[in-house]
């Protein structure tokens, strides 16, 4: 009998349970799961058969943990849904002789400067982009590309350090903001200066097996207040007619990077109605997008990621035709959370309210950009369903009216 054991490399933060718990639960329903995580498992234990504690950013510790699990179990593959661990996981798979994209391919996916070069080489429509190691280089690049521009770290995620710059007078502060985030990059510490793409933002959720990519769903997005690019809402409709239009571009981008297997979250903008690439994330999209995909279409992206990691053809047959939407909950200002709750009576009698989740409690400090980011600012989320995305989004608006969320701003020094 072929092995049914999958090694998962994962983080151990509270956000992991909130935003990736559904992945582990879905995979454990079909595979025996062993885990490498930086801390002793807690909530994960009911879904795993074994584990090793190791920091995935420590190459030697990760290799030793992987070898220990390989000696105790007949492993079929290794996977991660954590952006920061994509390259490390590929290196571990190579070391253990397991199927995987190569570390070099994952490095290209993680390094947005390399990815832009590959998109251009393969004719994939993408934003103009230049690297900048200093404010002077950023100014020269901005003059070449033309304002407005976008500054972003070359190897971050979650819109951290990404900022729009409308004119030269804004460049110094914006470059400092992007450069501070870029310094935490592993694959690159560069800052990119890019063309601003005017148009609605979407992502295409894809699954690739042995070089063949299937576009499963389109995610429509709503962004927060500029100049930042925090995503505050997503919706997926199984009948979205946009899927056929954007699927070829997503497929071409994945091929340009050399990705042959796994799940991809391909971000793009529609400029004058035509798709232009932002980036390819070589893992399941964050913000519960894999869960929304399953609600709307029936396709299980977490299970598909596990199957592809073990060189098995994923089942991508749609079994549902509906829609789902998520609203990410942010305060209007930074400060101390003084109230945070939802009307339980409304929730109990509302079948289309799929879930409400809070990751903060009263007394916590929340910090919006530029001082903070999505990790320091987000309070939680709610998910709604419906026959169409429009109805699911309208229901999300209705649900927000039953949310209580207040923040006390920090006192000024004079006070």
Defining traits:
single chain; 415 residues; alpha+beta; Dna Ligase, domain 1; D-amino Acid Aminotransferase, Chain A, domain 1; 4 domains; 13 helices; 33% helix
What would your notes on this structure say?
Strands 13-12-9-10-11-14-18-16 form an eight-stranded antiparallel beta sheet, sandwiched between helices. It has a four-stranded parallel beta sheet with strand order 3-2-1-4, with helices on both faces. 33% of the residues lie in helices and 29% in strands. The model has no long low-confidence stretch (mean pLDDT 94). Helix 5 packs across helix 8. It has four domains: 5-100, Rossmann fold, CATH 3.40.50; 128-195, Dna Ligase, domain 1 (2-Layer Sandwich); 197-321, D-amino Acid Aminotransferase, Chain A, domain 1; 327-415, ATP-grasp fold, B domain (D-amino Acid Aminotransferase, Chain A, domain 1, 2-Layer Sandwich). It starts with a strand and ends in a 7-residue tail after the last strand. With 415 residues, the chain is α+β, with helices and mostly antiparallel strands.
